[in-house]
């Protein structure tokens, strides 16, 4: 389904927005917004959707979501049935955090946090406990106390253990370019991957784009991205496929072709290896009836594995058959033939 846009109100003279939400259940509300969002969920367990990452969450869940990455939590039961579920949310703008890091060295850690959160970040139990220990200040009626508590939490989370959630470029806006922290030549590599992932990309193509050797490119990916070039491209493709699976009614075969996979079998295998479920199972996680971005197309897209197949042999021309006689003439000739045979068989 297509994510809804959420407008976040910060209030007058406030740099961050802190929201304390209590409710008996957390409904599925697939949405996005241009702000970063840090969410602590208490007394709740259910399913967490962050981009193309779908997983179970349990008590004291702490997640940082980057701008415009669709997300939602969904839970029908509290851990303690006698108490309500609680969500404590901090919203802040990325540009504000970057300016603060530039002018105040004490907050330089904010840049690191934003980089780590590019795909969403799920923190461990120790980070969740750290946030809970500061809730009194974070939920204060005094705006300056709230701001100081939020900044302390964000800076401490910059080095806290956490796991990335969504695939790179999952649901990413088309006009968003490199983040600016990569060296220029490798930013060109990332841009090339994002614009040409649906093609049969080779490592040599990426080396040409950045004018670097294959060894240098591989070393950069392993050191700065934490995985090989091939796996990064696969995750880009899977992220794009997940967006199409949740937003459209396109057949899986068409989605595979549009996402750069040579055939459906290869797509299914790589998708299951990364997302731990098949494409059809992933699509079934989202409510039906809202996938209307694209109508089902004619199945004219062919996988790359068929592009070099031999052309079909031209059909051999055959001499046209003589036209069959009209019905009335045929009946007359048939009647005459019967009379002739009857006369020949008449006894003399």
UniProtKB/TrEMBL annotation:
MF terms in GO: DNA-binding transcription factor activity; sequence-specific DNA binding
Chain positions covered by the region annotation Disordered: 282-348
Biased composition (Low complexity): 320-337
InterPro entries given in the database record: AraC-bd, Homeodomain-like_sf, HTH_AraC, HTH_AraC-typ_CS, RmlC-like_jellyroll, RmlC_Cupin_sf
Highest rank taxon of the organism: Bacteria
This protein's record includes keyword Manganese: no
Gene3D superfamilies: Homeodomain-like, Jelly Rolls
CDD domains (alphabetical): cupin_MtlR-like_N
The keyword Signal belongs to this UniProt entry's keyword annotation: no
Record keywords, A-Z: DNA-binding, Transcription, Transcription regulation
HTH araC/xylS-type domain segment(s): 187-285
SMART domains, alphabetized: HTH_ARAC
Record-given protein name: AraC family transcriptional regulator
UniProt organism field: Pararobbsia silviterrae
């Amino acid at each position: 389904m297509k994510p809804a846009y959420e407008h976040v109100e910060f209030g007058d003279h406030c740099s961050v927005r802190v929201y304390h939400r209590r409710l008996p259940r957390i409904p599925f509300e697939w949405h996005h917004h241009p702000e970063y969002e840090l969410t602590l969920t208490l007394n709740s367990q259910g399913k967490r959707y962050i981009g193309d990452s779908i997983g179970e969450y349990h008590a004291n869940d702490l997640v940082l979501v980057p701008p415009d990455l669709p997300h939602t939590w969904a839970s029908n039961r509290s851990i303690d049935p006698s108490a309500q579920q609680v969500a404590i949310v901090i919203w802040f703008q990325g540009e504000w955090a970057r300016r603060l890091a530039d002018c105040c060295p004490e907050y330089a850690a904010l840049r690191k946090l934003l980089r780590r959160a590019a795909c969403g970040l799920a923190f461990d139990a120790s980070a969740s406990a750290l946030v809970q220990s500061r809730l009194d200040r974070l939920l204060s009626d005094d705006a300056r106390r709230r701001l100081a508590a939020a900044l302390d939490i964000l800076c401490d989370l910059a080095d806290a253990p956490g796991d990335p959630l969504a695939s790179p470029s999952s649901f990413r806006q088309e006009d968003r370019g490199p983040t600016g922290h990569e060296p220029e030549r490798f930013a060109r590599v990332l841009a090339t991957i994002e614009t040409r992932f649906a093609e049969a990309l080779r490592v040599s193509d990426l080396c040409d784009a950045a004018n670097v050797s294959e060894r240098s490119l591989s070393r950069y990916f392993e050191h700065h991205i934490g995985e090989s070039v091939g796996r990064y491209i696969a995750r880009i493709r899977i992220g794009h496929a997940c967006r199409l699976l949740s937003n459209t009614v396109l057949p899986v075969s068409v989605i595979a072709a549009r996402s750069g996979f040579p055939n459906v079998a290869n797509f299914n295998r790589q998708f299951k290896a990364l997302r731990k479920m098949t494409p059809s199972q992933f699509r079934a996680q989202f409510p039906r009836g809202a996938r209307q971005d694209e109508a089902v197309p004619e199945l004219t897209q062919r996988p790359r594995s068929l592009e070099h197949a031999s052309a079909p042999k031209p059909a051999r021309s055959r001499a046209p058959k003589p036209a069959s006689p009209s019905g009335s003439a045929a009946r007359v000739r048939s009647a005459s033939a019967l009379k002739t045979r009857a006369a020949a068989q008449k006894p003399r």
